[in-house]
Amino acid sequence: xxxxxxxxxxxxxxxxxxxxxxxxxxxxxxxxxxxxxxxxxxxxxxxxxxxxxxxxxxxxxxxxxxxxxxxxxxxxxxxxxxxxxxxxxxxxxxxxxxxxxxxxxxxxxxxxxxxxxxxxxxxxxxxxxxxxxxxxxxxxxxxxxxxxxxxxxxxxxxxxxxxxxxxxxxxxxxxxxxxxxxxxxxxxxxxxxxxxxxxxxxxxxxxxxxxxxxxxxxxxxxxxxxxxxxxxxxxxxxxxxxxxxxxxxx
Length: 250
Description:
By secondary structure, the chain is an all-alpha fold. The protein has nine helices and two strands, in the order H-H-H-H-H-E-H-H-E-H-H. Helices cover 62% and strands 2% of the residues.
């Protein structure tokens, strides 16, 4: 998800990192983030070779890197201690590769979407997401995403898994691409405080189901598919509940 959707919160930033091992570690975080681009390239190779399971495994590994580098960057205060490189910009570059470009390339596979549907869908994904990633108002003050957060790796995962008709898949892409620019919000599963415990529980369950689907070579059983569908309904629908009044803890 753009700008490090899966981010930690527990580590307090170091106010100053002196020259030495910790200084090297600060720059090492940038290298760790950049490794996500290499993982995206490996995923692209798997797409070209027709191994979508391997491609999603590489993308899942990139997601784990995305989950780790954010907390480390804040703890080591890399914006000051490794300031030659802009960590936020680097993160956006890598995220565009793994969340957008490689998933768009998957749409060119005939088993995912036949030509020309896949080509049209891929172009929509790339152009719309390029604009979305440049949006200076991508998040609200309480960390909700404004518009669909361009998690096309997840969208294409569902398309590959459930195999809807080409026209249905194209319609899904068009609707979600339009939602990137509509006045709707989507939850950041880690940074949004409201319903965080429930959201994290659903996220963990979803990750387990997604992992099982990959273990089953993208052909899981009914229970796994049901969990994945339930997770999609939760994350898509939670934004509509954002304006509900919060309960008084007293």
